[in-house]
Amino acid sequence: SKRFFFNLSVMGQGNQTVVKEFVLAGLSQTPVGQAALFVLFLSFYVLTWVGNALIMVTVASEARLHSSPMYFLLGNLSFLDLCYSSVTTPKLLVDFLAENKLISYGQCVVQLFFLHVIGAAEMFLLTVMAYDRYVAICRPLHYTTIMNRGICCVLVIASWMGGFVHSLVQTILTVRLPFCGPNQVDNFFCDVPPVIKLACTDTFVIELLMVSNSGLISTSCFVVLISSYAAILVKIRTKEGRSKALSTCGSHLMVVTLFFGPCIFIYARPFSTFSVDKLVSVSYNVITPMLNPLIYTLRNKEVKSAMRKVWTQY
Prior knowledge:
This protein has helices at residues 2-6, 31-61, 63-66, 69-96, 105-138, 143-146, 149-175, 192-196, 204-235, 239-267, 277-298, 301-313; strands at residues 8-10, 17-19, 21-24, 102-104, 184-185. The chain is mainly alpha-helical and 314 residues long. It has a single domain (2-130, 137-313), classed as Rhopdopsin 7-helix transmembrane proteins (Up-down Bundle), CATH 1.20.1070. The strands form 2 sheets. The chain has a 3-stranded mixed sheet with strand order 4-3-5. It has a two-stranded antiparallel sheet with strand order 1-2. Helix 2 runs antiparallel to helix 4 (69-96) and helix 5 runs antiparallel to helix 7 (149-175). The radius of gyration is 22 Å and the shape is globular. Residues 51-296 form the G-protein coupled receptors family 1 profile domain.
């Protein structure tokens, strides 16, 4: 079993060995627990697809929403949520039914790369959405000029490009490390913190670089987001106006808290392991993409009305 567990392959330079595949720790080791979790997480994944796809279809079908910068960005957020959830959840579902939770080195690197591309792109997009709300509330007369369709498209593309550059740095730093065993990743997917712990070399400098990269992005975006909402509240003098602004931005604040809180906890600290890391990972990988559509639809009468209209048409 040890031979199977480590599954190391000799690569021809003395006694040096190189890991060809990793073993994922998963979320449960008992058959009953895995079966129950499979049903639960399959339900989460289906709800994620249904909710986010419904928002995308609604925004695309309803001209009034499609022409609005806020809902155009919301449709892109739903697309990112679908992509983000699909990076890890399908593999997790397969592993619930498998005796051995294996992932090849190449698949691990690909999963890590797309996780950070989409995750960072979503952070940047949420920041753009906060700026959109700031312009809408604080500069309403210039809103359509500042946040026109061309600018919105540029900001969405910039979010993706920022995510790509961030992830490229993370991935290059990871693949340059030597892995010669052990090969058990202490999570249900491949991410930078648990993977680089398996490197058979000193990773102190690499950890600092990666923390400064991921931690700086997540913390900086979060500070910008909070600052934009604080500026909105300062700008609006009346109690009624502040109440209306909070109602308008409330959904966005909930999404920001659910997404950035776990990300800052995982990435803005040295790569030490805590017992709650897996639960935190489940939160921003599985739960948040599922809750985002519910948060936006339950608190937004305009979206609910448009969804009912689309539903009756089909």
